[in-house]
Fold this sequence. Notes:
Number of helices: 15
Order of helices and strands: HHHHHHHHHHHHHHH
Amino acid sequence: MQYLELCKPKVVALIVFTAIVGMFLAVPGMVPLPILISATLGIGLVAGAAAAMNHLLDRRIDAVMTRTQHRPLPSGQLNERKVIAFALSIGALGTALLVWQVNVLTAVLTFLALLGYAIVYTVFLKRATPQNIVIGGAAGAAPPVLGWAAVTGEVHANALLLFLIIFAWTPPHFWALAIYRRHDYAQAAIPMLPVTHGVPFTRWQILFYTIILFLITLFPYLTGMSGLFYLGGAIVLGAAFLYYAIALLRNPDDELLPFKVFKFSILHLMALFAFLLIDHYLPR
Length: 284
């Protein structure tokens, strides 16, 4: 159970889901079953390894923050040696599976995403700048590109559009949580935006990025990648996200609202990619 928690299963599930959608959007018909299984397992294993490395590198911060004190390392359920062995094992297994059963491009891109999250973001950006999640969000936005590359062996413009959607989604998603947990981040001396620039400024930034996100989510329709079914879903979801972002500005005393926005943002992304997937197989 402790090893499962190391993998951050909810985060990995979202990563794998968006990667799978990327696979299906890359082809007009069905994804070959061997590729689907191997790519899903490989990407999932490497994502789990990145999460475990994040646990290892953030163990001192996690011990300070109320939200993360229960994690396997700060709670003493696992030691550092076991976490390192676990992360290296599943990371190597996932990479080998991608090279063997999928293609080298997907394996390289997946490994680079691991480095981006576990090293560039966790070790450097997280502690260096309040824009950490904006820059580091590139690693978290990679899964649809990985899925697309797994099926086609290339990085297509449409895959980069999916990347851009998640890249724009990440700041309002994470800053909402950062507002809710700002005292934790302040105690751990992590320069999250609500800590360095204050909550009102962060609320405005959430609205700004939500507007950008809403506009970007229209691009799949505008470029001909998706049809009217997706467009309708994107507009409804975007309008709901904007409603929450505006509510954050209008209700500064509601301490639970940022967490509600955070939870909604996860639903927003999952539903958006579900609309993309369903629309892909509807007759035009």
